[in-house]
Design goal:
By secondary structure, the protein is α/β, with parallel strands linked by helices. The protein has two domains: 6-183, Rossmann fold, CATH 3.40.50; 195-276, N-(1-d-carboxylethyl)-l-norvaline Dehydrogenase, domain 2 (Orthogonal Bundle), CATH 1.10.1040.10. Helices cover 47% and strands 13% of the residues. It is built from twelve helices and eight strands. The chain has helices at 14-25, 37-40, 43-58, 62-70, 78-82, 96-109, 163-175, 192-208, 214-225, 231-238, 240-250, 253-265, and strands at 6-10, 29-33, 72-75, 87-90, 115-118, 138-143, 152-156, 179-183. The chain has an eight-stranded mixed beta sheet, sandwiched between helices. β4 (87-90), α6 (96-109) and β5 (115-118) form a beta-alpha-beta unit. α1 packs across α4 (62-70) and α11 packs antiparallel against α12. The protein is globular. The mean pLDDT is 96.
Length: 284
Amino acid sequence: MAELQNLTVIGSGVLGSQIAFQAAYFGKNVTVYDISDEIVAKLPAKWERLSQLYVRDMAATPEQLDAARARLSETTDLAAALADADVVIEAVPENLELKRKVWAQIGAAAPSGTLFCTNSSTLLPSAIADATGHPERFLALHFANEVWRNNTGEVMGHAGTDPAAVTAVLQFAGEIGMVPIHVEKEQPGYILNTLLVPLLSAATHLWINGVAEVEDIDKTWRTATGSPLGPFQILDHVGMETLYQINLNTGTEESKRVAERVKTEYIDKGYLGMDSGRGFYTYE
């Protein structure tokens, strides 16, 4: 397959914006699509914040950051966003019905040959692939939050994915500064979230059942394991919307209670996690 130079990112939330900036920083031409002018208008502020983090963590120079921003464009026109796409990465909320609807629109509008990647945290590619109309070109490329530091790129196809597409996306992941990880068999949560989600679920269940406060749960984990972050600090990186959707879709009584509390005490008040300045903790 030809080099994947032109990337379209669908969804400009926490991970969508990070993926876009990371790819542009490593030389790709990136178009970011979102559903409203109001959302798109907030992207320059996100680019500025990410620029500061790249200076802090990657010693990025002004010249590198200017070049990255010059490779970024934003639009609310899906057809325009997809017109030259070699690869599409979708990063919309973790809801199967929504993802299938979005992928049906992408599949109908994208050029022939465009590769399709979902960044879904928990959903299997096989649950979405047929909605695209081109399942042989559909697979998952999963990023950890703070992609420039926690830079795993987990690549997972489904039974009908063309092996050449898997190879091309593994190469693309390496080209944008990720460590490509080939997940050889469909697994809900890939490798990373298969390990991480049980920890986060245990923490939220301790919280919802009144066993301990957020700060004490985090303190216990950090102190006993030497981890730099507790589970609720990790959840602030992940974002409240993702936490809400995952618990809403899990179906257990405890998870439903977690989802309800997250919505009423955090999302409804605009406390969406680190990216908004407040989640379980408050940030500068």
